[in-house]
Design brief:
With 521 residues, the protein is α+β, with helices and mostly antiparallel strands. It has helices spanning 2-17, 19-39, 57-61, 71-82, 85-95, 104-117, 143-200, 212-245, 260-277, 283-307, 311-317, 323-358, 363-403, 425-450, 457-464, 478-507, 509-520; strands at residues 44-53, 118-127, 129-140, 407-416. The longest helix has 58 residues, at 143-200.
Length: 521
């Protein structure tokens, strides 16, 4: 810690050796810097503020049914347009008198100067509702010229924002109208192509039942159902035939009259009665037995004929009046009709499936082309409908704009500052003073490094690595002390005068600057 303090003190003593050099450098730098600061030309600023309110009552009413103008983007584009060459040329011609008589190179320099010093800013403010505040600022050495430039630029800003929107809206409506006419022709052509394709490919175009493979799968499923129903009906028919050809409905079903079954019963009863009175060898018993056997043989013959469906045999056997037999015959007839109808339905389904299978190489291509035509038609129709909606909204927007959807208000007309906005001379004078003092100290320190001396025994020991046996001090005479005191007072006075001169510069910088500008002019 002591070594660091000793090092700092040694450096300060070294700088102090060249204090007058430092003072001279500080004076030269400060005087030169102050002259430069006072000679800098004054720059004046002019500005104007425009308030753009996009939240009027009418804009809220038309929200969603009209084309919502992006006022922020529109104003931003206007701002960029204002900084373009044509607009700045208009401003230069109206606000700068010397522009008209200047050479082309000078005119380009004037326009470039306008672009450099011109600023159009957009900031958001809260006035019950969000709004946009545009500030137009311009700086120029001539205060009146700065005011004229801002005034002309404000007029152009309002003209472009209000007039450009109307012109752009008319162009948009003309464009939409032309596009609607074009898409109407496209839509009619697409409808005609679709109708022609349906007519040329009738039967292969997908409908409510789906595409080709869906229809084929549906017809196949329907054929399976029809076959299953036909199988059930055939089984029912076969069962009825089996019952009709069995003996169950034929036995015990005779009606009244002399049919074979009745005769068999009567003969059997007569035989039983004879057996009660006679033996088996009695002629009447033998005759009765022979008659019963003949009747049974005849009954078997009739039953065989009935099973074969012989109408005469059925009529002779009396089954024509048997309700059970008649019911089974009616059921059989009905089932046979249903079986015939089921067979025709199955045949029709098989033919339909066969026809579909013949189209297996053509139908997918037809369906793909139909889907493409439908897609083109849907796209064209949706675009056409979208254009029609946009045109309707644009017309509503035009009427709304004419009524006042957006409100432009000049919040602050072109205004200029009476005092220059630059340069900031008080700050620059103070910076020059500090810079002069710092530069003087730097020069003194540099000279101390170039022309060093030993100011203590420690420095000599550190440098030579030899012990110092003793130090001889210098005894100053009174006249030397007085001379040193006078030099200190002179140095202090020079420092105070420099600071005092800086204070005077700060207090009189406006007058001094104007005086210096007058001398330069």
């Amino acid at each position: 810690m002591n070594a660091a303090v000793d090092f700092i003190l040694e450096q300060l003593r070294g700088i102090w050796r060249f204090r007058w050099t430092a003072m001279l450098v500080a004076w030269i730098v400060c005087l030169a810097g102050w002259l430069v600061v006072l000679g800098m030309p004054d720059t004046y600023a002019a500005w104007a503020r425009v308030f753009i309110d996009t939240r009027t009552r009418l804009s809220q009413v038309t929200q969603g049914i009209a084309v919502e103008s992006n006022i922020a983007t529109e104003a931003a584009s206007v701002r960029e347009a204002l900084l373009g060459g044509p607009q700045l040329e208009k401003v230069a011609r109206l606000a700068i008198p010397s522009y008209a008589n200047a050479a082309p190179a000078q005119q380009s320099a004037i326009i470039e100067g306008l672009r450099t010093r011109l600023l159009v800013e957009a900031t958001g403010e809260q006035r019950n509702q969000p709004a946009d505040l545009y500030t137009i600022t311009y700086t120029d050495p001539d205060r009146r010229q700065a005011h004229r430039v801002v005034d002309q630029l404000l007029r152009l800003f309002l003209a472009n924002s209000l007039g450009g929107s109307q012109e752009g809206s008319e162009q948009a409506q003309q464009f939409l109208t032309a596009q609607i006419a074009d898409y109407d022709k496209r839509l009619q052509a697409a409808e005609q192509r679709l109708a022609d394709f349906k007519r040329e490919n009738a039967g292969m175009v997908p409908g409510a039942t789906g595409d080709y493979f869906t229809r084929l799968r549906g017809e196949t499923d329907e054929l399976e159902k029809e076959r299953l129903q036909l199988t059930l009906m055939e089984q029912k028919r076969d069962e009825l035939n089996r019952q009709l050809t069995s003996e169950q409905p034929l036995v015990g079903g005779a009606g009244s009259g002399g049919d074979t079954a009745t005769q068999i019963r009567e003969t059997q009863a007569k035989l039983d009665e004879l057996l009660l009175r006679f033996t088996d060898n009695h002629p009447d018993v033998i005759a009765a037995r022979r008659s019963l056997d003949d009747l049974k043989k005849r009954q078997q013959t009739e039953m065989a004929a009935v099973k074969r469906g012989d109408v005469t045999a059925i009529a002779d056997s009396g089954l024509g009046s048997n309700p059970v037999y008649q019911g089974m015959r009616m059921q059989l007839s009905q089932v046979e009709v249903e079986v015939a109808a089921g067979q025709r339905q199955v045949a029709a389904e098989e033919a339909k499936i066969a026809d579909l299978r013949k189209m297996i190489t053509v139908a997918p291509g037809v369906e793909a082309e139909f889907a493409r035509l439908n897609r083109d038609y849907d796209v064209t129709r949706s675009q056409y409908q979208s254009l029609v909606d946009r045109l309707a909204r644009a017309k509503i927007s035009d009427k709304a704009d004419a009524t006042g959807v957006v409100r432009f208000e000049v919040v602050e007309p072109p205004t200029g500052s009476s005092n220059p906005v630059s340069p900031d001379r008080p700050r620059l004078i103070f910076v020059v003073l500090l810079g002069g003092l710092a530069l003087g100290l730097g020069v003194a320190y540099l000279m101390h490094q170039l022309r060093p001396v030993f100011s203590s025994a420690r420095q000599l020991t550190d440098l030579t690595q030899l012990p110092v046996l003793g130090v001889v001090s210098m005894t100053w005479l009174e006249r030397h002390r007085a001379q040193e005191r006078r030099a200190m007072w002179a140095y202090s006075a020079a420092t105070c005068v420099l600071v005092l001169l800086a204070v005077v510069m700060l207090l009189t910088e406006t007058f001094t600057s104007q005086f210096l500008h007058g001398l330069i002019a």
